[in-house]
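2024-03-11 09:14:02 DEBUG pipeline.ingest accepted 1 chain
2024-03-11 09:14:02 DEBUG pipeline.ingest length=101
2024-03-11 09:14:03 DEBUG pipeline.predict start
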Amino acid sequence: MILVQGHMLANALLCPDLQNAPKTYKGVTFYLDTPLLVQRLGLEGEPKKRAAQELIELVKNLGGVVAAFSHSCEELSYVLRSAADHIESRNGRGAIIFEAR
């Protein structure tokens, strides 16, 4: 998984086909996954919240639409319930719990 992420980041940074990249993303829907939803809510700290918001604003400024799949929203609900259940536990860990403490 890390290899795939690294490849995606390298392609985004180097953008080998920049000449043919669209100037607008009108009509394109970008789906946020659960980690980005968590960050957008500010549950992993202000810097990640700002970064997620900037990404969303960039997509919108380029004409794109930002959305989330229903299963991502369900997963977000599970993540939040789990964090709430473990916030007081000595064994509770994770970015949400760390930020809440």
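2024-03-11 09:14:41 DEBUG pipeline.report The first strand starts at residue 29 and ends at 31.
2024-03-11 09:14:41 DEBUG pipeline.predict end
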